[in-house]
Amino acid sequence: MRSGNLQPTDRPADALRASLAGDPERSWAEGTRIALGGDLRLHELRSLDLLHAARAPWTDLVQRVANATPFQTWEWVVGFARYDRSQPRVLVWEHVSGRWVGVLPLCDRGSLLPGIKRLELIGARLSDYPGLLAESAWRAACEHSARAWLARLAQRPIALLRGQFEVPPPWLPALPYRVLAQDAAIVVPLPSDMEQLLRSLTKRFRGNLRREQRLAENARLDFHTPTTEQELRAALPVLFQLHQLRKNSQGERGRFHDARWCEALTEIAVALQLSGVTQLTILRINDEPAAASFDLRLHGTQYTYQYGMNPRLSTFSPGRLLTRRMIEEAIGAGMKRYDFGRGVEDYKLQWSKERRAISDLIMARGATMLSAWTLVHQGHRRLLYSRLLKRAYLAVRGRAAAPEPEPPP
User: Mean pLDDT lowest for which of 51-60, 136-145, 159-168, 231-240?
Assistant: First the structure.
């Protein structure tokens, strides 16, 4: 392998190539081009400036890869990179024609131990489907070169990967690893019309839906989906508030306690709205916000990302009313699947039993380090899920929410 500089051309990635050209030492610090042999070149993007310049070729790749998800889009990855303030180490595979054929959005993050950083997928802590994005014809080549590239990162001895469908992911080098947690995503296959889907549900659930529909007929229902940036910016705070109301009523802190995260998600949603990916719907009952769902549409699948509900209006079952509406609109838009995202809650299983396994895993360069970090993670997790700790917290703070459990560094 050899390093070098990219020269500007008249291809779509001109801005990125121009930013990488220049002094070889500076190029290595901000981005690197490696000749893999054959028709591929590998780039490593190591700054937000380079990520900003990559929008056009990245978006073109997302449009060409049929199984790409919203969580692999340029808007999502760059939005999270800004929010996390992490050090990007994004791998990009470019064909000699100038077309991007693969992207692996990695980053360096700090750890509890001074001088040691861990490797993560950008946004994996708050995304459902992170991972390698690649054209099918070039996927094996991307995985092979990713393994070789990552094996050289001797100063990055720990990798923490969340939300992976393959264990271990084929783009990781052959190093010791352990599965930290296993979960599943519930997916609803969508037929051509809503009546056909309803007939596939249990008789009891259909009866509940009919009763809730009759109850709702005695109230004023309004479903609103913002179509402009101004409307979207005005509606997102309603989602944040409803999410916090529901989580606080359950004794949890909720995702939107952090103003920075609210701002970051707003900018991501606005950016994705331009390409028709963002699908936010607010349900009001008798003019009062009752439920909200922030969904994302791409390549025939609608993904539920964040949800909120007003506990004061629970007698109307606003969550189920809104879910039915979202699924009905997804069918009308030609979606083939409705993905509830990670977690096997009862309300999801009422719509479908189809599951997709998801795993979190940790990888280290040696068995000793792997065992040590696994113990740290398990101890941290037990502490955060401790009932005694939660009761003590709620006793001190009253209705204030306990922190949401999050895996350790």
Answer: 159-168
Query: How far, CA to CA in Å, does 28 sit from each of 2, 48, 148, 372?
Result: 11, 15, 18, 33
Q: Show Cβ contacts of residue 238 under 8 Å, excluding neighbours closer than 6 positions.
A: 282, 289, 292, 308
Q: How far apart are CA 344 and CA 350, in angstroms?
A: 10
Using the Cα atoms of residue 115, residue 157, residue 76 and residue 90 in order, give the sign of their dihedral: positive
The model's confidence at residue 22, banded by pLDDT at 50, 70 and 90, is very low
Phi, psi (rounded to 5 degrees) for 176: -60, 140
pLDDT tier for residue 406 given thresholds of 50, 70 and 90? very low
Helices then strands, counting H and E runs in the chain, come out as: 14, 15
Q: Smallest Cα–Cα separation from 197: which of 339, 352, 371?
A: 352
- DSSP H or E stretch at residue 147: helix 139-150
76 touches 126 (CB < 8 A)? no
CB 102 within 8 A of CB 134: yes
State the Cα–Cα distance between residues 358 and 175, nearest whole angstrom. 20
State the pTM of this model: 0.83
Rounded distance between C-alpha atoms, residue 73 and residue 130, angstroms: 10
